[in-house]
Design a protein that fits this description.
Elements (H helix, E strand, L loop, with lengths): L8 H7 L9 H20 L4 H23 L7
Keywords: Plasmid
Amino acid sequence: MERLEGRHAAVVDLARYFEYEHLPNRLRAVSKAVHDLAQDMIDHLPDCPMLTRGLGSLLSAKDSFVRAALDAPAADGD
């Protein structure tokens, strides 16, 4: 994640779980889409309990989406 300097520790802590570069290609695209949304929310919303809660919910959704992608047929090159 980018642009985390000066953000609340809870936001910074959650943000690290949205990284996607380490994932295989077939999971990376799904995870990147959620990463981009999380980054957009961090960029546009103030630090507050609702941002932290929203990021936590988004993280849970990301985990579900990535698990769903694990069950999808692999494309060539993945």
